[in-house]
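User: Modeling request: complex.
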Amino acid sequence: MTDSPPGLDPAQIEAYFALMEAVGLLEHQVEQHLRADGGISYVQFQLLARLAAADGQLTMTQLADGVVYSRSGLTYQAGLLEKAGLITRGTSADDERATLVTITDAGLALFRKVLPGHVQVVRRQLLAPLSDQDLHDLGDIMTRVRDHMRNEPPRSAAPRKRRQR
Amino acid sequence: MTDSPPGLDPAQIEAYFALMEAVGLLEHQVEQHLRADGGISYVQFQLLARLAAADGQLTMTQLADGVVYSRSGLTYQAGLLEKAGLITRGTSADDERATLVTITDAGLALFRKVLPGHVQVVRRQLLAPLSDQDLHDLGDIMTRVRDHMRNEPPRSAAPRKRRQR
DNA sequence: TGCTTTTGCTTCGAACTCGAAGCAACTCAA
DNA sequence: TTGAGTTGCTTCGAGTTCGAAGCAAAAGCA
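Assistant: Request completed. Predicted assembly structure:
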């Protein structure tokens, strides 16, 4: 490999730009639907989805896992969801610090109500123009990229844990 | 065709989730770098990039084109960029309503300063785990998806005249 | 010409996000 | 046991986003 080429070649730029813009548009569509159909945001939908899938209680940390958002943002959203009666929060018996989050019947009902429409949006906006081969390729590629990024150190903002070395 | 199947099959879910999470992570990395290296946000970087590429003046509307953000958000960001001396705004002679935006030397300099690092982040986070074939596939797929979504009507944001269920 | 509608942008208020700081509970080694 | 360090979550403040409403210029139309 050469030492840091000047820029990106056309194919790289195209892939990068198309990727970012397409996902931006998709997020926007999804957001619109969820807001109109269930009065919730994408973040809230994802939280409900996690709880519905977990089929039990999750701590705040587990709930945030995989989501980029900050802890404080999660606290805020959890507050909204609790106020809306979609989840309940309680202190864990095992660990007094931990907050256990449980989805309520109303939360589950709302999730089930908006899910079909959500799937429909994803189908129409993302899946529609893709062949089975495309779908396979996309899943394979993005899974690899995601796993790669999960393992990459932040480079700049180093975690303030203990010094190593 | 069948009437809206119950959900998504595993391959579809995998592709959808991996896509959304990977892009989320990438955006986060990019944001971190730009903030640390140039003191600007991703949005501001994109605006500067557009202006640098346009090599002249753009109206606010042209500047927002392709970016999902609202007009008011663009006004806000343009205000910040102008305050920072990276762009200038002036009224168009042709159309008194239009605001023409021009990138300053300082803006261009800043853009050029952060670009290499930005490219490096994209390389390391997104491009690194991809083969030439992957890159080609990804560009092809996402370009198709993006163009598809650009042409799709909003679907959901329609006037809510109809009763629900 | 007058009038309505459309277009381009801004202002305003509400909502959302993040990081830093703070608090309380837990862990672990001495 | 005890005290330093870590972990889980919340609070707070600053910054950013959006949509609705508003304003002025332009375009359509009678």
